[in-house]
Amino acid sequence: MWRFTVDAITAGKRLDHFLQEHIAGHSRARLQTWIKQGRVLVDGQPSRASQILKAGQQVEVSPGELPPLRALPEDLPVQILYEDESVVAIDKPAGLIVHAGAGAHSGTLVNRLVHHFQSLSGVGGELRPGIVHRLDKDTSGVLLVARTDAAHRALAAQFAGRTVEKIYLALVHGRLRADWGRIEKPIARDPVRRTRMTVRLGSGRAALTEYRVLERFDGFTHLEVRIGTGRTHQIRVHLASEGHPVAGDRLYRAPKSVAPLDNLGRMFLHAWRIAFTSPASGARVTLESPLPEALGEWLRRLRSS
Fold it and tell me: Which member of 136, 179, 249, 262 is catalytic?
């Protein structure tokens, strides 16, 4: 347990900021988790991360258990689309986190993978074995996993060289007038809301998104989207910056509920197709993930409305 007394210099600070300054080696997210769990007391009482401290107050911290330094195997289902000696392609459902982070240390795709496969690439570290690229938690679709270090490096080189073809299906709010379009805006972390990305700064990492209209509906447009880069939230932030957020994407200010798509429950973004060169055979491999039934139902409802 740690005990601190708030002095005149640190008075006026938020509780989580105070802890971050006084406890080394722990992220603010972890400290905030301890606060929510009631492990941090101010003058003997549970508090909030945003509480402003006063001089003379007593702060006590009972640390929680640290997450494992490696991904532990969990016997949970994995849908395999393809595998060879070098790579496995997974059909990831929406709602599944790819690897540990931000308070999630079990139930991830990686926990499932280390149970189902004897060995995976270690290039990404023990918390991310085999992970060459990622999909957001609420994005479904095909994801490549490297089985060996050599395969990992070969696939990473293909992604960096933009020879991996990645095509998504998305439903966005509003009717796009042009049949196709290209968005090239650098993407950076939002300095105010750190869970979001932004193009408003005019700086950041270069990003390329191209789209083609598949269908137009009253208030929505169904798109095929190709990305030449793989930035965090790239499709979501690029389309939202054009005034067309992905349906159901509340982080980027999509309406919560719009008839006839009430109670969306997830966003309509699906990694539909990927094409790459197998490090094992040298052959070009093209894989598709079927559109999930829930997203197909949305389209059927729009077509009949």
Answer: 136
